[in-house]
């Protein structure tokens, strides 16, 4: 079996969690890490047993022993790193949100398709066993035709203008950090909406504090979504069909349990535990796609990533949020 060798770009909080799940991914291994701080990269490598630490993002692109990069930098840095990696022929798993802007996402996706190099957004939710069970039930007709999706995800964070979450230059705000989950979940089940209506409020930095979105599909199908960095939300999702509904219990973006409700029947509770901390499933998907020579995932295709980024961009524009890409690779 071909071993797939991974490099980590951006050794932050999410990367600390993701890299530990390589322990349960067969045939994949994290071998290198890159940071704008060599000391930080070395500390991460020491903690996780990685062989090499690079003191710049550009440096890891020329590492011949890295097959695929997991990009976990702030949102606004994804675009520049991804473009440089594609030009270097490195496959990519890019954290969500995929980029800070719709135009940035389109540029990365266009280059991926031109080069044929594998790229996938790291939307781990789509690969959770409980979410796979939701899709399977819907495909079997368990709740009839899906007509509506409700989802919310929010946390209470004290405002700090220098924190990544609140800094527009780093892609701060609720939409890109948490809203991407509710939008991607709705897009997975309903497809791309015809119209986006958004309302919310901003922090003093100009980043969005909270948002409520109505996604209109033009045929009566809708999604009603909420996200917030100002206050905690349950983190639940509900999928309504013509003959029943499915509750995805908190927190829906990495759930263990779903409940199927059908007219005239008792509710059915289904539990599906993830491997490791839950990140293993997206790592397995990328690893298997690379072995098979695929240029993108069928579960998290690039068209879906662009559709989600478009909704986020339209919502941000309506709220008066102005995101931008960071052109420096570092």
TrEMBL record:
The keyword Oxidoreductase applies. Residues 132-246 form the GFO/IDH/MocA-like oxidoreductase domain. Gene3D superfamilies: Dihydrodipicolinate Reductase, domain 2, NAD(P)-binding Rossmann-like Domain. It comes from the Bacteria. The keyword Oxidoreductase applies. Keywords: Oxidoreductase. Residues 4-121 form the Gfo/Idh/MocA-like oxidoreductase N-terminal domain. Pfam families: GFO_IDH_MocA, GFO_IDH_MocA_C3. Belongs to the Gfo/Idh/MocA family. This is Gfo/Idh/MocA family protein.
């Amino acid at each position: 079996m071909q071993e797939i060798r991974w490099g980590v770009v951006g050794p932050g909080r999410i990367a600390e969690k993701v890299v530990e799940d390589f322990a349960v991914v067969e045939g994949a291994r994290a071998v290198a890490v890159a940071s704008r701080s060599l000391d930080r990269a070395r500390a991460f490598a020491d903690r996780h047993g990685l062989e090499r630490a690079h003191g710049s993002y550009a440096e890891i692109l020329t590492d011949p022993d890295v097959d695929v990069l997991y990009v976990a930098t702030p949102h606004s840095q994804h675009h520049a790193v991804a473009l440089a990696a594609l030009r270097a022929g490195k496959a990519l798993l890019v954290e969500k949100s995929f980029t800070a802007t719709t135009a940035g996402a389109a540029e990365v996706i266009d280059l991926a398709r031109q080069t044929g190099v594998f790229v996938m957004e790291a939307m781990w939710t789509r690969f959770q066993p409980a979410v796979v069970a939701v899709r399977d039930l819907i495909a079997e007709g368990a709740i009839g035709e899906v007509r509506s999706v409700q989802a919310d995800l929010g946390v209470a964070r004290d405002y700090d203008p220098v924190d990544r979450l609140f800094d527009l230059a780093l892609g701060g705000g609720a939409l890109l950090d948490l809203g991407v989950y509710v939008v991607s979940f709705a897009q997975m089940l309903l497809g791309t909406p015809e119209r986006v209506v958004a309302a919310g409020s901003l922090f003093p930095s100009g980043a969005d504090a909270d948002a409520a979105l109505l996604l209109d599909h033009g045929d009566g199908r809708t999604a009603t979504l909420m996200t917030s960095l100002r206050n905690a939300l349950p983190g639940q999702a509900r999928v309504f069909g013509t003959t029943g509904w499915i509750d995805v219990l908190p927190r829906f973006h990495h759930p263990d349990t779903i409940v199927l409700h059908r007219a005239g029947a008792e509710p059915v509770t289904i539990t599906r535990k993830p491997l490791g901390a839950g990140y293993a499933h997206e790592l397995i998907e990328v690893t298997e796609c690379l072995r098979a020579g695929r240029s993108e995932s069928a579960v998290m295709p690039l068209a879906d990533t662009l559709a989600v980024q478009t909704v986020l961009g339209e919502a941000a524009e309506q709220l008066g949020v102005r995101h931008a890409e960071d052109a420096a690779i570092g």
